[in-house]
Design goal:
five-stranded mixed β-sheet, four-stranded mixed β-sheet, 10 helices, 24% strand, binds oxa(dethia)-CoA
Length: 322
């Protein structure tokens, strides 16, 4: 049995911050952000209650309704996030409680922008082993709480939001998938958690913010995504032409165009919402999936290539039949 997606849902905060709003905060302008990234606006949380947990729950409820399953039917809940509201319990446990998914085992995955793909990979492995039959997989981020709002090189890039899918074990669906990581480049994109703090060690009380060497991550993405694609196509005995849509992590429109160019593919095969949502890290692929699903773009039998890449460094990819 393989992973088959049977429902999608997403949540984007109502508050929209345009590039002109960014220009009121830091030394930047719409022209720089648009031409370097393709981003025009991003959604940002705007109340204490509208947090990571809340967004994950909203997306999950929509995905559940879309799938026709009940919360008690779910065997496993995985939440991909690096911006939980609690160190413990996990966001997945909070979602489980709110949904009343009393039979599910729930835990979080920390794999940054590749997190949702790590979730798909993990669930597919569970399904293949026969351990579980149904899953809720969520990608959710409130990166606005961990970016430095005085650093123009990062704060203009990110947005908040959540996307979720319901998957069931089926005869078709996941065709092939992979995931990987390379901790030797951990410093390229990072955000420190709390430092040591006990009666015997002095602490730096300053909280850390997201640091990114953008150019290194850019080069990594443009190299790694085609590498993953070729591996999966070979494994599945498929060609580039068999793939209907390439749904990549929405970090930067220029990354998408560079990859499309490398593969000699037209941009209409690379749906994107980075102009409206910015980079929502682990949430970007499930938000895009939900958008395309509800627009009717994805047809039964469509072949999709999904790929996420980011901090760690981490990467994940999947070829799946809709
Ligand atoms: O989601 C996780 C994965 N993340 C990614 O995939 C991100 C990948 N990287 C990128 O998308 C791009 O590297 C960025 C969008 C982050 C940066 O674009 P870039 O073309 O690589 O710009 P840069 O960092 O080389 O900066 C070029 C110039 C610099 O000025 P100087 O040194 O040339 O005078 C920056 O200081 O642009 C300046 N700059 C800005 N100017 C106006 C940086 N940020 C801004 C800004 N507004 N917001």
């Amino acid at each position: 049995m393989r992973l088959k997606i049977i429902g999608t849902g997403s949540y984007l905060p109502e508050k929209i911050a345009t590039n002109d709003h960014m220009a009121q905060l830091v030394e930047t302008n719409d022209e720089w952000i648009s031409t370097r990234t393709g981003i025009k606006q991003r959604h940002l949380v705007s109340s204490p209650e509208e947090n990571t947990t809340y967004m994950a729950i909203q997306a999950a409820k929509k995905a559940l309704a879309d799938s026709g399953l009940q919360a008690e039917d779910i065997d496993v809940i995985l939440v991909a996030t690096v911006s939980s509201d609690y160190v413990t319990p996990s966001t997945a446990c909070m979602v489980q409680k709110e949904l009343g998914a009393s039979h599910a085992v729930s835990f979080d995955i920390n794999a940054a922008c590749a997190g949702f793909l790590f979730g798909l990979n993990t669930v597919d492995a569970y399904f293949r082993c026969g351990v579980y039959q149904t899953a809720l997989i969520i990608g959710v981020e409130t990166l606005s709480k961990i970016v430095d709002w005085s650093d123009r090189s990062t704060c203009v890039l990110f947005g908040d939001g959540a996307g979720a899918v319901i998957a069931k074990a089926d005869e078709s669906g996941m065709i092939a998938c992979l995931q990987g990581s390379d901790g030797t480049h951990a410093e390229v994109l990072s955000c420190k958690a709390r430092s040591n703090n006990n009666p015997y060690i002095s602490t730096d009380k300053n909280l850390d913010y997201v640091f990114m060497n953008g150019q290194e991550v850019f080069k990594f993405a443009v190299r790694k995504v085609p590498e993953c694609l070729n591996l999966l196509l070979e494994q599945a005995n498929l060609t580039l032409e068999d793939v209907d849509y390439y749904l990549l992590h929405q970090a930067n429109y220029r990354i998408l165009t560079s990859i499309a160019k490398k593969l000699h593919l037209p941009m209409d095969k690379f749906p994107s919402n980075v102009d409206r949502c910015g980079n929502t890290s682990a949430a970007s692929i499930p938000i895009l999936l939900d958008e395309l699903n509800h627009k009717g773009v994805l047809k039964e039998g469509s072949i999709l290539f999904l790929s996420g890449f980011g901090a760690g460094l981490t990467w994940g990819a999947a070829l799946l039949k809709w």
